Amino acid sequence: MTRYLLRRLLQAIPTFFGITLLTFFIVHSAPGDPVLQQTFDPNISKAAREELRRRLGVDEPILAQYVSWLIGNEWRRDPDLLPRRGILRGDFGNSLNEKRPVLQMISERLGATLLLTGTATVIGYLVGVPIGVYAAVKRGRLFDSLSRVLSVVLNAVPGFWLSLVVILLFAVKFREWGLPAIPSGGMYTLTAGSSRGSDLMDRLIHLLPPALVLATGPIASVSRLMRTQVLEVIRQDYIRSARARGLRERTIHFRHALRNALIPLATLLGPTLTGLVGGAVITETVWSWPGLGRLFVNANFQRDYPVILAGFVIGAVGVILGNLLSDVLYGVIDPRVSLS
Amino acid sequence: MKRIAVVAFLVLAGLVLAACEPEVVEKQVVVTQLVEKEVVVTEVVQVEGKPVEVTRVVTEQVVVEVTPTPPPVPQGGWVTEVSFSDAKILNPILSNDSASADVHEQLFGAALEEDPFSGELIPDLTEGWTVSDDGLVFTFTIRDGVYWSDGTQVTGKDFVFTYRALKEGSLDSPRLSNVEYIAEINLIDDMTVEIVYSELNCAALSELGLGWLPAHMYKDDFTDIQENALNTSPTVSNGPFLFKEWVKDDHVTLVRNPNYWRGAPHLDGWIYKIVPNATVGVQQLKTGEVDLFDGVDPKYLVEMEMLESVGIYKYFDDGYVYIGYNMGDPENPQPRQNEDGTLNEDHGIHEILSDVQVRHAIVYAVDRNAIISRVIFGQGAPVQANVIPIIEWAYNDALEPRAYSPEQAAALLDEAGWLDQDGDGIRECHGCLYAEEGAPLKLTLITNAGNETRESIGVIVQDQLGKVGFDITFEAMEWNAFLGTIVGQQFDMCIVGWTNTGSDPDDEGLFASQNDLPDAGFNFVSYYNPIVDALLKQAKTVPGCSFDERGALYREIQDQIYADQPYDFLYVPRRILVFNKRIVGMDPGPWEFRSNMYEWYIQE
Known about the structure:
The complex is a heterodimer of chains A (340) and B (604).
Chain A: H1 2-29, H2 34-38, H3 46-56, H4 62-71, H5 102-137, H6 142-156, H7 159-176, H8 200-233, H9 237-244, H10 249-261, H11 263-286, H12 292-302, H13 305-333
Helix pairs in contact in A: 1-13, 5-6, 5-8, 5-11, 6-8, 7-8, 7-11, 8-10, 8-11, 11-12, 11-13, 12-13
Chain B: H1 2-20, E1 31-47, E2 50-66, E3 78-83, H2 98-104, E4 112-114, E5 121-123, E6 126-131, E7 137-142, H3 156-168, E8 182-189, E9 192-197, E10 241-247, E11 251-256, E12 269-274, H4 278-287, E13 292-294, H5 301-305, E14 310-316, E15 320-325, H6 356-365, H7 368-374, E16 380-382, H8 406-415, E17 418-419, E18 428-429, E19 442-448, H9 452-467, E20 471-477, H10 479-487, E21 493-498, H11 508-511, H12 530-540, H13 547-564, E22 567-580, E23 583-584, E24 601-602
Parallel strand pairs in B: 3-12, 19-20, 19-21
Antiparallel strand pairs in B: 1-2, 4-5, 6-7, 7-9, 8-9, 10-11, 11-12, 13-22, 14-22, 15-21, 15-22, 16-22, 17-18, 23-24
Helix pairs in contact in B: 6-8, 12-13
């Protein structure tokens, strides 16, 4: 087990460097210039612009920038440069626009994103699992067909589109028609009073719509996986012997079949979470949710390189760890799988 | 303050009345009123033989004298304003974006500010200033009696600290050009500051409009400005409002400054709310979730006018939208001047657009009025040259508009040697000035994707130029790629606009040949006219900087630019400010609508 973990972690190192190299050069080769963006103003002279470029360190050769970004810039021995420790030592640099540490900006918004994706995941599993089990039990019946069609549709519908439809119908039209409407975005009602944040209902009504939209993906994939697994499990001998022992159908399905069918679900958790963070980028933008997604989208438009790169690197590490976690969980839950 | 003014007015009115009608004997009228008043009475009562002190409330009727006072201004309430983009950094010398400025202008006063109606520079945290005879030394007297929110007095030290930090502090700031021509920043005494410029520049005064930082909160060597908690939570300020909180990408909340030197605001505070797009902003105006939205798209104007709860204020923006013609060689962009200021021999020409007749033809071929009425629903005014009408003292109103005339355009193109002899609908060069014989009249037109207005203009321009024999390829590019292409001078024609051009008509950045610098200068259309070069320099360095003398020079510049048409100037957009009518006391001007926010109040 330990050896397996160690081997997987060692394998992750070249992957990680490959990702940093690729993202760094792809991001920097996209057209755009953060300095020109900040100084798109005819009253700002060329000299002032060059000076800013130098102080930000974006005038250096791209390879030097890459090395500084990885390991810090002490090796440059340039007293004018702001000291940087490099991402390998946990320093993701300062945002070019906001002039403050990227990690600080990320940590400010992490909570909002985790709340949204966490809620979406919980909803996804809570709704997806029962649907999958029930569909398997009622195999071939109407509910089964319905759930399968629905899961294909939910998987195919893009989240941003669904969000816009939900906003248009339940926030805008409902308000016009005088029906109880949902808020069109944000985390809470901005009333400047002291009650903000402490009003649970207000928080919930803001959280649930985007979380439900975001949960459609997991609901679809979890219910489909669940259905296949349960179908496979109920064909096993031990289920037949359970029946032979005269157990009730409900006990057979939920005590014996479900528990074994849940195993592959654990492995879905890692990819689901990382996938949700990716999907949240768009959903957060549509719902004006002040999370990481909007931070990275805006940073992309403004060519705020340190922020974009931090997004990629943290995302990549998340995927690597998520997959590792899935594999390890598999070994822990299912004794048939050996991890050596 | 208000009340004193009212009293003073009454006294004055009394004097005037007394002067007009001397025989009227003034009578003192005393208005009295019977008021029930609750009085707390304490008496000693005997309870079971013991004296016990008992208090009770008795209602008494009292006659009181009443002085008539104007109804008091309702206090309290919040104004929520919409913005599409969040502030980036709340430090006036580190930010250059309008969202950050919207917020920190409410927090930090500056040496001077723009008059909301005329755009003229007027004193803010200074009493005023004097200028030396050579126009290089400005001496400011600091306003007395202004205090930072922590109780420290605002002095010249703050002014000096702020500008020295930019000049000497090795900051990475987009504001470095504000101090480029400042040679010295001297503190004469606590309340007197002297700014010495290295060269005469009539447009330089506006560079002193940056908000002051509280010097006592920073180290003297400027090392802790770049990364300081005050940049995101500026808790020490002196403006009408104080910082309360900033939730990134969500909102900024400011609350009233009870000690604001012009008078404490009536409002409890102001919220700057970030919404993802205009549709949401307009929707929230309708529901009353937000009160104020500056820059509503004209397509929502009718919808807003139908809404009873809101008022609308329209004003001309300080900027314009135009089509830029590249007059250099897009295949080989070159700076106009060498390092030593001599002309660069390698600077190429544009085969089609270097011919002024072709540029005029395009102006005649594009129907600006159609663009104004169809694309921006009438919310704009045509402009003929580079100075906008709201800068009255420099605006040249004598320029005859080149009105839409495809016939005139066709005649000019014929004359310029662009004829369609093969009958394919596209003209070719037959004796034109610069292109090869037989070359088609083919140009690309670019703009930034996502800007609906400019994309619609592009389609119209492509269509209208096609009708007179151009072959136009129109492309909307991603903003960063677009910036790179236009500043890199690798285009034929571009649709773009200038905003926030400021109240000074100086345009050296756009039309002087020394700023024809690929990838670095803003004369990216490669305009070169030695007369304009000289006039721009002269207009900026008129001794005394009088409006009369400078205005005459700027009108001459506009004559030249009108004749040369380096741009097809399209229109000055009209900005639409929509506000909920519950806000009372707004006094918006074209240069600033929040200037008297401390006087606004809420009347439900």
